[in-house]
Amino acid sequence: MRSEPPRVARLEPEVGINRAIPTVMHIDLNSCFATVEQQARPRLRGRPVAVINRRTEHTMIITASYEAKAMGVKLGMRVRDAKKLCPDLVWLESDPPKYRYVYHKLLGIMNDYSAHVRMRSIDEGVIDFGDTTGAIAGRDIVDIGHEIKQRLRDEVGSAMRCNVGISTNRFLAKTAAGLHKPDGLDVITHENLRDVFAGMQLEDLTGIAHRNRQRLEQVGIYTPLEFLDADEETLRRVVFKSVDGTAWYSRLRGWEVDKRDFPLRTAGRQYVLESYAMKPEDVLKRLHHLAEAVGRKVRSQGLVARGVQVHARSYEHAGRGWNGAYWHARQMASVPFSSDQAIYEIAKQLMERAPYPLKEIGVTCYELTPPDDTQLHLFGDQLAHERAVVSAMDAINDTWGERTIHSADTLGTDMVKAKIPFGSTRYL
Amino acid sequence: MNDEVFLNERIQVLCSFGSGLNPCVPRRFRRASGREIDVTEIGLRHPTVNGRRMVHVFDVTDGMADYRLEFDSERLTWHLTREGDRL
User: Fold this and answer.
1) A33 CB within 8 Å of a chain B CB
2) Pairing outcome for strands B53-61 and B41-50
3) The model's pTM
4) Which of A255, A25, A28 is nearest to A129 (CA)?
5) Within a domain: A120
6) What is the ipTM of this complex?
7) Portion 261-300 of A in contact with B at CB < 8 A
8) Do A212 and A106 belong together in one domain?
C-alpha cells in the first residue's frame, strides 16, 4: 500500500491585484500657494503667478500657477529665467500664515469625514475610510470626493481647486489624484489599473525618480506596465536589492504598505546666503539665527537633541560646473540639550572648518528624544538654570511674537525668517 | 513683475456683521488721504497672530486694485498694509 506523499511547505502564492472596494482618498491642493494667492487677490486669477521665498530675481520659484506652468514655468526655476518664458509673470513673496490657514481649513473638512486623516504635507492629505466604514455607510466615496471639493470652494473660496484620487492604497490614490490636474477626481481600481499604467511613464510614479528609473531600466523595465508585471524576486533581489522590492511589488498592486508614521528624528533649517563671499562673522550671525530657529522647533515638540550637524554649500568647483560643493560636519554631545545657546556653540565650532566662500548654510539637530528627567546629571544645577532661562524666553516669544527676545548677535538677520515647512506638518 | 506696495496706514472701515463663514465683512474704507474705496469682493480672510494678539487679515479688491486690511482684535484698529494696483 502506497503511503500519501509527505506534505511540503508551500510558498505563499504571489500577491494578486487588490480587488477590494477603494477606500483610500488622497486630496491634493492644486499649485497650492499660487492658488491661495489667486484666491486672496481676485485680479490675479487667470494670470501667470509664481510664489517665491525672497524678493529677488535670483531666487527660485516654489510654486507656479497653472497659467504659468502652461507657459513653461517650472518649480525650481529662477525668476529671472521664468520671465524670459513668461514676461507677464507676477511673482509674490510667500505668505505662510495664509497657507497655514488654508491647510487647517482643509484638515477641518477632512476630519468631518473620518478620524483617520493624515496630512502628508502642507498641501496634501489622505483619508482612510477603510477603518471607518460607518462614516461612509450608504454613501459613494466618489460623492464624498465631490462634496469635499465643493466644501473647499464654499468654505475657503471660489478659486480653490483640489485633486482627489481614490484607490485601495495610498500610492494608487496619490497616482489617481495626479491623473487630471487641475481639479480632477479619479478612481483607480483593479479594473482600470493596467489602463492607467499604460498611459504613464516610470518617473510619473511617486517614488521613482532618476536613480530608481535607471535601476529598473537595467533589468529591462521601461514602463509602469512592465514594472507591474515584474516578479517579486526580481524586484527584491536584482532591482532594489532589499525588501523595498517586495514593498513595490505590493504597492503597485494596490496593497497598503505605506500606512506608517515616522517619529521625528531630526529638526533643521537652512538658508541660502544673500551675497557671494560673505564674511565669516556675518555668516555666523545667520548661523546663530538658524540655531535659534532649530532650538524652537526641537522644544516645540517637547524633545531634546544629542547631536548637531551643520552643512554648507560652497562656491567651490564641483566637477560638473559651479553648482556648489556640499560639505557637512557633525558632533554628538555627552548631555542632551535643547537650548539655542548649546546648539549654536556646537554649530559655531563645527563651522570653523567650512570651505568658504559659502552659498548656503544649514543647522540640524539629530538623535531627538524625549527628555529623561529621571537621570541625575553631574551638572544638574547648571542644566536646570539653562532650562529655566530658555523656558522664560520661549514664554516671552509665545506671548509677544517670534523673536521678541533673541540673542543680540542676531540683530539685523530678519531676512533668515521662517518659511514654509514643506515636508513635515508638525510645525503647522 | 511684483506690484505690491507695503504700507502701515491707519484707516477707517465700515463693516457689516452677520452670520456664516465670514461674519465680518468690510464694505468700505477711508484712507488717510480721505479717499473712500468700496470693497467689491473679499478674496480671503485669515487670522494670524502677533504673539498672543489675534489679527484678522482681509484680502479685498474694489475691482481696480487689491488691498490688504488688517484688524487688530485687541486694539480694535484697522490698518491698510498692502496695495497692488499695477497689473
Assistant:
1) no
2) antiparallel
3) 0.81
4) A25
5) yes
6) 0.92
7) none
8) yes
